[in-house]
Write a structure and sequence with these properties.
About 60% of the residues lie in helices and about 5% in strands. The chain has about 500 residues and is mainly α. The chain has a domain at about 375-475. The strands form three sheets. A two-stranded antiparallel ribbon has the order 1-2. It has a two-stranded parallel ribbon with strand order 3-4. It has a two-stranded antiparallel sheet with strand order 5-6. Strand 1 (about 155-160) and strand 2 form a beta hairpin. Helix 8 packs antiparallel against helix 10 (about 245-270). The protein is elongated. GO terms for molecular function: (S)-2-(5-amino-1-(5-phospho-D-ribosyl)imidazole-4-carboxamido) succinate lyase (fumarate-forming) activity; N6-(1,2-dicarboxyethyl)AMP AMP-lyase (fumarate-forming) activity.
């Protein structure tokens, strides 16, 4: 086959990313390249000959070895050249293969099969192989790196956020444990669905018309054929394998892709100058901007999000390929080929996110500054919240909950008015709370009763140090990391 400079390739997967992710690209190529596609179709044709010989009691180890050796000699270029004459890809492959197998087996090549008995079976073989051999190892690596990070930062205090606003305290580990949980479930589902991919040898309309003419039990022949490839038969076939087996796997790929894109968004936003709580690894020779030497852009996280934007919409064509008129049409013949591109793009994103997590750091001083800056200080004047807000306002929730526990029915309104007073006076929430009649003493007494503080007088300190109010964040972070580490390792 004529070699071509990779920079003449059209898809960035085949030039830009084949260089930056060479090991991953090579591992994907073994399953979803055009060479792999032809090779898998050859394997299917050889498996069919072996099945025929098996039911006829004509298979010997030497003959099986000869068939497999013949299959290994097939050059995709030769098949493509033959297709220029036949204008049919599978007939071209059959013609080339017949000339290479032992002569006595040549009549059995493709016998009883229709093209899609080979194509759909080979596609399932490749997609299961690439999922188990490449996709899942990449995802599991990322999941375990996330578990490491969550365990390391399980106790690191952080301001929780909703709607882009400060909410109540959590920990960095708890925030990332969200993705451990979401991605972990998706990984397990991908593993399950890959194992359910099916093949077929049911003929032109799925009713075994052709094979029923030549063997006593066409379904037995189908089972033997598919077992050679590690597959099982589709429960019902037209000319096609039921499309939902592959569709569900691809949809779960996209679920995982969305989770990773969501993580990428969170990470790049937490690296904003005005937040600065997390930071991607940045090498000594790396350049952030062509004109601003000081820049350290979160470009890896942005790259993951960008890959998601490019490939996520392709799910539409996966759904469209679900529909084929009557027993089969060819409306999926071009679109289905791009499943390989999608799989590669997904894996590139997973790999890039793994490198982000591997080098991800938490700026604990900045995290505490943001948390306590939001809480104010003992003097009642804190550094404030970037973009405005009430210093210590994040502690309004526990104040309201505790006050309500003392029997105050409008506790929420009482605390809301205290936040308004703090805003008007440019003071911290803790300072405003201390000025409000018997509110703090009531709250302090309840905290002492609940064992949250030693004495009621210590209550004010609690509201000045919000890292003490993080619920079960630490426990949840550690338990989720432990749970999914065990599931993934098993």
């Amino acid at each position: 086959m004529e070699a071509r400079n990779i920079f003449q390739n059209i898809s960035p997967i085949d030039h830009r990313y084949s260089i930056s992710e060479k090991a991953l690209f090579d591992s994907l190529g073994a399953w979803i390249s055009e060479e792999a596609s032809v090779s898998s179709e050859v394997k299917a044709e050889i498996a069919l000959v072996i099945a025929h010989l098996t039911v006829r009691d004509g298979l010997t180890p030497a003959l099986k070895a000869a068939l497999e050796a013949a299959g290994a000699k097939i050059d995709p270029a030769e098949v493509y050249a033959e297709e220029e004459k036949t204008r049919h890809n599978i007939r071209a492959l059959v013609n080339v293969l017949k000339a290479k197998v032992p002569p006595e087996t040549a009549p059995l090549v493709h016998l009883g099969a229709t093209s899609v008995d080979i194509l759909d079976t080979a596609l399932s073989y490749r997609m299961r192989g690439v999922t188990e051999g490449v996709v899942l190892p990449q995802l599991k690596k990322l999941e375990l790196l996330l578990c490491d990070f969550v365990e390391r930062e399980a106790e690191t205090p952080q301001v929780g956020r909703t709607h882009g606003q400060h909410a109540v305290p959590i920990t960095v580990g708890f925030a990332l444990a969200e993705y451990v949980s979401r991605l972990g479930k998706s990984i397990l589902e991908i593993q399950r669905l890959a194992g359910q991919l099916k093949g077929k040898l049911a003929g032109a309309v799925g009713a075994y018309n052709a094979t029923a003419m030549i063997v006593r039990d066409p379904e037995e022949l189908e089972r033997i054929y598919l077992a050679e490839l590690g597959l099982e038969p589709s429960e019902h076939s037209t000319q096609l394998v039921e499309p939902e087996y592959l569709l569900r796997l691809l949809l779960e790929f996209n679920v995982a892709f969305g989770i990773i894109a969501n993580l990428a968004d969170d990470l790049r936003n937490l690296q904003r100058t005005e937040i600065g709580e997390l930071k991607e690894g940045f090498s000594a020779d790396q350049v952030g901007s062509s004109t601003m030497p000081q820049k350290r852009n979160p470009w890896n996280s942005e790259h993951v999000k960008s890959l998601w934007k490019a490939f996520m919409p392709r799910v539409t064509s996966f759904f469209m390929d679900q529909i084929s008129e009557h027993q089969r049409d060819l409306s999926n013949s071009a679109s289905q080929r791009f499943v390989a591109d999608y799989t590669a793009g997904f894996c590139m994103a997973v790999s890039r996110m793994a490198s982000v997590i591997e080098g991800l750091g938490a700026d604990r001083e900045r995290l505490l500054y943001n948390l306590r800056g939001a809480a104010g200080s003992e003097s009642g004047k804190g550094p404030g919240i970037p973009g405005g807000g009430i210093p210590g306002g994040i502690m309004a929730e526990p104040a309201y909950i505790l006050l309500a526990e003392t029997g105050v029915s409008d506790a929420h309104e009482v605390i809301r008015k205290i936040t308004l007073a703090a805003e008007k006076e440019h003071s911290s929430f803790a300072a405003a709370l201390a000025k409000e009649g018997d509110v703090l003493p009531r709250i302090g007494a309840k905290m002492s009763e609940l064992g949250l503080v030693g004495t009621a007088a210590e209550a004010l300190t609690f509201f000045e140090k919000p890292e003490r109010y993080c619920g079960l964040a630490v426990k949840k972070a550690r338990s989720l990391a432990a749970k999914y580490r065990k599931l993934i390792n098993n």
